[in-house]
Structures are given as structure tokens and as C-alpha cells.
Amino acid sequence: MSTLTWQADVLDGYAQASLRAPASAPEGGGDGQLTRTLVRRVEAPATPRAAALIVHGYNDYFFATHLADSLAEHGCVVYAVDMRRAGRSLLPGNQAHHISHIDELAEDIADAAQAVTADAAERGWAELPLVVHAHSTGGLAAAIWANDRPADPLAGLVLDGPLFGLALSAWQAAAMRVTPAIARLRPRQVVVPAPSPYTTGLMDRGWAFDTAWKRPEGVGATAGWLAATAAARRRVAQGLDIRVPVLVASADSTGPDRLDNPRHASQDTVVDVEAIRRHSATLGPNVRHLIVPGAIHDLALSADEPRTAYLDAVGHFVDTVVT
User: Fold this and answer.
1) 40 within 8 A of 81, measured Cβ to Cβ
2) What is the residue-wise DSSP string for 285-300?
3) 284 contacts 298 by C-beta, under 8 angstroms
4) What is the pLDDT of residues 106-131, one digit of tens each?
5) Domain range holding 76?
6) How many domains is the chain built from?
């Protein structure tokens, strides 16, 4: 039985509820309290075929209602999670998006998936298969979660521009090699200041979101976050064994995250799409890698044509994995 207490969300037509504090939450201390927030689309298909859980990335939170609408059109009752130290779950004292291990985010996904299943059953839709749509760092964490401890009803996994690799200069690669040592001593130290032309470009192209939760000035990456995501990327590179169908989607190229980049609005300027290509085939026995020309890092926020192509492919994937 779900024990969630729902209230109106900041998005019209949505409700939110706080999940229990994570098991890995610190006992007091300098980070303040930790929570995770489940969001649900109030309107649902008359007879849902599946539940969908949307997972955000770094310097991000759930706001893409058009993605939720598209999933609903394919028969999904739609939920999203704002993970610890992010978006609706960012509390006083929290260091935004900091983690020490990818399992922290995997735990947030696991707890959200469990809550989705319980809440859907309480709404009269027991035993719905689950489809998870996860972006960027959320995609990296979701791949680890789906490999290590997937939810029983998991039917399919969509990875949107997953953080499987970074396009680094020589000096950045050298700096990354010393990050684990810094993380052991000062995990919360900001190692990479992170202005985000990518986020500014989204605003320039008309996407509306709360800039306190998705910051144009970026969120500086801590040594802990860098070490945790690097370790998770090494796991992916070694190969996983995800036992459900996986759709991995990426742009067709990676370019510099500068507003003077002439393709800033039509290529990935955050992660290395070649790393996505290399590692997709080793995620499990049933993986499709979708390359969308003209897409950006978050394919769901691309220009009209690539966005439509991406959402159509996601809808087809849902139709394929849900009976």
C-alpha cells in the first residue's frame, strides 16, 4: 500500500509527494536532510498499459511535460523523480547534485520505481509493467540500477544521451586522473567550475524551467561526483548484463559547449556520443542504439524535427516492450 501524501506540484496538471529519506542519508552533519520527490501526471489513460518513470540528469529536474504527454499517448501512467539534492528535492544545506557513489542515484531510482508500482496499484492499476526513461547522469545511474537490482516489473529502459563518456581536452583528462585522490580527502570540493552554455542555449531556444533548479551558470562538479561517475563509466565500459530491452539514444556528433559553436543547437555539447556508440552494444543482449541527426544532449529538448523523431522512436519502443 502506498503511504505517499500528494500535493499540488509546481507544474499544472501534476502532483508531487516526498519519498522516505534514503537509507544512505547521512546522520545529520553538514549536508542537511535528504529527500527524493516523486511527481505524477494527474491525467492518465483510461486503461493504462504501463507505468513510466522519468529520471533527470545533472543540473536538471523534471519539467519536460511534453515527454510525459508523449508517453501517456502510448498508454503510460507517467511519473518522474527528482533525485537527492536536485530540483524539488534540493533542501537547505544540500550541495546540489553531489554524490560519493553512483549507488546513491541508483537507490533513488530503485525507491522511486517501487513507489510508482505501489501508487499505480493503489490507483487501481496493479501489476503494470514499468518503463524507465533516464537522461545523462540519470541514464548512467539507471544502467547500473537495471543491471544490479532492477524492479520486478521493469519491461524496458530508455537511455537519453547517457553519460558514458566525456569529450575531454588533454589537460582535462590529466585533471581527471587526480580526482579520485582529491575525492578521498575532500569529496565536496568543487573541482570543475561548470558554467553551462548548454542550459543557456535551451533558454534562448524557448524552453522554460526554474533557473534555481536548472542553472544557466551551471553547478560546479565536486571531486566526489567526478570520481563516482568516472567509476560508473568504467563499469559500463567493462560490460553490463541488463536483461530487459534497452533503447540507447544519442545525437549524431559531439561538439564544443560554446554559444559561438554553429551547431550548438544541433549536436551534443555535453557527452561523447562515440562513447555511447562503443558501450551500447555491451549493456545486454537486447540493445538498440538510435542515432538522431540534429539532436542535442537531451534528445527530448531538441529542435522540432529531431525531437519528433526521438519521441516517435520512444513511443514505438514502448509499444514493442509492453504487451
Assistant:
1) no
2) SSEEEEEETT--SSGG
3) no
4) 999 999 999 999 999 999 999 999 99
5) 7-167+233-321
6) 1
What CATH number should be reported for the domain holding residue 49? 3.40.50.1820
- Has residue 205 been placed in a domain? no
Going by C-alpha positions, the residue among 99, 98, 80, 71 that lies closest to residue 36 is 80
pLDDT in tens, 47-62: 999 999 999 999 999 9
The phi and psi torsions of 82 (rounded to 5 degrees) equal -95, 115
Q: Closest Cα to residue 308, out of 95, 67, 82?
A: 67
For 168-222, where are the alpha helices, taking DSSP H only?
A: 170-185, 197-204
The model's pTM is 0.95
Residues 6+ apart with CB under 8 A from 213: 60, 61, 86, 87, 88, 90
Residues 6+ apart with CB under 8 A from 319: 74
Q: Is residue 228 part of a domain?
A: no
pLDDT in tens, 252-278: 999 999 999 999 999 999 999 999 999
